Amino acid sequence: MSDNNISYTIEEVASLLKVSKLTVYDLIKKNELTSYRVGRQMRVDASDLESYKEGKKNKGRQVANSEAIVNDSPRTFVISGQDIALDLLAKQLEKESENIRPLRLYTGSLNSLISMYNNQCDLVSLHLFDGDTGTYNIPYVKKILTGFPFIVINFLSRWAGLYVQKGNPKNITGWKDLNREDVSIINREKGSGARVLLDEQLRIQGMRYNEINGYQIEETSHLSVAAAIGGDRADIGVGIEKASKIVGVDFIPLIKERYDLILLKNETNEDVIRKIKEILSSEEIRNELSLMGDYDLSETGKVIFETY
């Protein structure tokens, strides 16, 4: 059979290169090794594997020297998510890891996860509700990170629900009130966890978005939504409890959401994952998170899901 017709599984490529499967996945993610999917299995053509090996040989000493220079410099570690608790985690990670330089992105959950798939960030935080299972995060991670080994670690849990004006003058009690003609909402941007929660609840409750007053009006954070309610721009907003206390609006808790951290499992991240587990199990960060209030830390540091 011609080499042009031979293809290998990830396990076979790992065996041929004498590296782990995690390393092979990382090479594919970085576009250093070409792959394709047949059904649920990823394949690598023999010709593409040979091209990768030849490329490594040709780089020779130049690559080795450049890698040495890179290894002497702190690694930029991109953390994407909007809760202020992530700033605390980033600060602690930088403090305890000489080779890590955290960079914060304040992007919504779904867009952060897509960025991870596109190799644009290293750690993402999620609070994505799935109406079909009634669970958080795992269904989305499985679908978007298909083919990549990953780990899901709980950071904290918190209440999500509805912001309403002080004193709740419209007597709003839950999701069904979104469909009332005498109320209007301020929405979150597409890709945010709050927007996903709203859209899933509309689907579950059998309501259509075009029947919701104000659905097309968007803000880009929990605080800005709560401020819009406080400023009498709308009657309802979806968000987390903490923002309501900062702004001074009333809050109706409707669901306890799990706020998880997602990291890809590869050789580059092994030490970082271990360090994050250590940080989350420390009394120092737990005490600081407790001082922030409104967080449930009962599962903080627990591995919720892991692929190999």
Automatic annotation (TrEMBL):
Domain PBP, first and last residues per copy? 91-280
**Superkingdom:** Bacteria
Q: Name one Pfam family in it.
A: HTH_17
Q: What GO terms are given for molecular function?
A: DNA binding
SUPFAM superfamilies annotated for this entry? Periplasmic binding protein-like II
* Stretches assigned to the Helix-turn-helix domain: 8-56
PANTHER family listed in its UniProt record? BLL2305 PROTEIN
Q: What is this protein called?
A: Helix-turn-helix domain-containing protein
